[in-house]
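Hi V.,

Quick status before I head out on leave. The structure for the redesign project is tokenized and pasted below; the design run finished overnight.
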């Protein structure tokens, strides 16, 4: 039988510490106001969370209805067969997301500066972002 020495816990504690640091950095609130990012076949759009709104995001199956209410976002209706996206809980925190995969509609909460990257019609400017490379 092996005897566990105090030094045997060092790799374990280092691994736990690294996991905690990554989790804190990923889920910490970012600077700027939270924005709703919607990607569909029509393009990419940003909407503020402080205004209640109902948005149609068109995909190959039809229109998915995205509902913003009191800072929470949900997919209220979608033409997909299983309605998994509709039955999901509302999202409200940074980096939370929901998607209607059959209809190719993706929603995510992200941070941003008010008005930055948004055209007058809420579409995202056509620049290349960090994820494109």
């Amino acid at each position: 039988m092996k005897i566990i020495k105090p030094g045997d816990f060092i790799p374990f504690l280092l691994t736990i510490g690294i996991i905690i640091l990554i989790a804190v950095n990923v889920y910490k609130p970012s600077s700027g106001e939270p924005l709703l990012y919607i990607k569909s076949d029509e393009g990419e759009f940003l909407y503020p969370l402080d205004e209640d709104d109902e948005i149609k995001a068109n995909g190959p199956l039809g229109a998915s209805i995205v509902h913003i209410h009191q800072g929470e976002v949900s997919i209220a209706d979608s033409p997909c067969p299983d309605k998994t996206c509709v039955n999901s809980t509302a999202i409200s925190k940074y980096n939370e997301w929901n998607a209607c995969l059959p209809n190719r509609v993706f929603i995510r909460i992200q941070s941003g500066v008010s008005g930055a990257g948004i055209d007058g019609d809420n579409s995202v400017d056509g620049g290349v972002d960090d994820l494109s490379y």
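Above is the designed sequence. The longest strand covers residues 33-40.

G. will cover questions while I'm gone.

Best,
W.
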